[in-house]
Amino acid sequence: MKEKLAQIREQAISALKGASDLRTLEDAKVKFLGKKGELTAVLRGMGALTPEERPVIGQLANEVRNAVEELYANTKTALSENAKAAKLQSEKIDVTMPGARRNIAKRHPLSQVLREVSDIFLGMGFEIAEGPDIELDYYNFEALNIPKNHPARDTQDTFYITDNILLRTQTSPVQVRVMEKKKPPIKIIAPGMVFRSDAVDATHSPVFHQIEGLVVDKGVTMGDLKGTLETFVKKLYGEDVRVRFRPHHFPFTEPSAEVDISCFVCGGKGCSVCKGEGWIEILGAGMVHPKVLSGCGIDPDEYSGFAFGVGLERIVMRKFGIDDLRLFYENDIRFLKQF
Ligand code: PHE
After folding, report:
1. Per the structure, how many domains does the chain have?
2. The domain containing residue 132 runs over which residues?
3. For residues 87-112, average pLDDT
4. Which of 26, 75, 125, 289 is deepest in the core (most CB within 10 A)?
């Protein structure tokens, strides 16, 4: 019996010591200390011993069990710590590694330049106004001195919703809406979408954007209009750009003008972008027609004003050298990424 216990002790110790992971350790424990384990079997067999032998063997068996249990507990702690250390090692984060690059969104070139234009005018004391895309015939035409059957209506192929309701063909109706509500001094720009039933090509789109400008006060002159627009153009394109006013006609301004800038590609010599002219048209403008003022309840004998309408796509194309309007609306990431 003593020999048997000594043998169990030897075997148990070597099995526990040899365990390289928690599972093998647990198996070894069960093998010796478990209900069906070898040491347990010995203890069960104690009944067959003589009363003299019993306490001696009992004590010995307890010693063996304590020794094995202690070794088991120590080994378990050691193995658990090793396992934890290995896990920490394998899950270690290298904080010096470069992070995953995020794709940062970019502002659309139209929005970028609109912001720039807005900033320029805000800097000159303008406020920003808005009007609806779906507009009444009255605001888009009638109040702008374009009565029914006026030839100017033909030049703007209008999307009508009903006889009276249409998609605005210009941002000029915002002039009227502002003047109806606010008395001078008025100094606003009104950016927005406009719609014309045009076929799509490199320079035409049924949807595009304009930036309307309106200044009404006592003693506003054509000189103010020229100074304002020249300042705007030079801030947008640089001091070198030259500005030219050409007589034109709009029913809601008198006198009216179209404004050209010297070609940004050839500087005025003539090239394919300006079609050999050296100049590029970017906006329409003029002194607000007295009929438009009085229609909004503003006395044209007391007040005068100027207005202008800039084509946003145009000025963005000029700014970045973009030769096809359609690129703005296709949202091709390869195009958008460049700005
Ligand atoms: N609304 C005109 C257009 O679309 C531009 C314009 C605005 C002209 C303001 C004069 C004054 O062509």
Report:
1. 2
2. 109-336
3. 89
4. 289
